[in-house]
Queue: 2 jobs
Job 1
Amino acid sequence: MKAVFIPYNQTYKERVLDMLEKMNIRGFTLWDNVQGKGSKDGEPHYGTHAWPTLNAAILTIIPDEKADDLLRKLHEMDKETEHLGLHAYVWNVEKMV
C-alpha cells in the first residue's frame, strides 16, 4: 500500500475529487483551508487580505499499482496551470488497521 499526500490550491478541489472518483479511489481524508507557501517560487496561501487564496490537502492510502497512474494524472493537471500549485508525495504504508 502507498500513502499519497496531495496538497493543492483550493481551485483544484472538484477536479481532484473527480479524479479520485474516476480512479475508484474511495478512501481519503480531506483538509480544507490549509495554509502554506510553495518551496520554489509559489506565493503564500494564507487566506488573509494580502494573500487571500488557500490550499486544501488530501491523504489517501491506495494499492501500489494505482500510485504511478495517480501521480501521472496529477502531474498532467498541474502542468495545465502550474502557477496555482499542486503536489503529490508518496510513501510506503507498513501497517494499517
Job 2
Amino acid sequence: MAIQQNLILEQGTDFQAVIKLYETPSTALNLTGYSGESQMRKSYDSVSSTAIFAVSIPVPSNGEIYLTLSDTSSQSIKYGRYLYDIVITNSGSGIKTRAVEGIITVTPRVTR
C-alpha cells in the first residue's frame, strides 16, 4: 500500500523532494536493487503526463527517494492541483510497487 505524501512545486523553480520510506516506524526500507519512476498528471483520466520527474535513490540503505524537476520544466506547468505517484521496481524480480502517491500543488510565479 502506497504512503500518502502531498507536495508543493513552485512554478519556474528547480524542484526537489526527498521522501523516506520505512519498513517499520524506526527502520528505513532498504532500496538496494530498486529503481523508480514518477509522473504528474492533472487527473487520473489524463492521457498524457504533465511532468515526468527524475527519480534517484542515491543511498539505497537509508530508504530515501529523490524527485527532481528543472526550472525550465516547472515553468511551463500551469498552476493548480495535480496528482502524482512513485513506482519502484525491484531489479531482481521485476516486481513494481506503487510506493508513494499524493497531490502536488503548483503555485504560480511572479518573477519572470
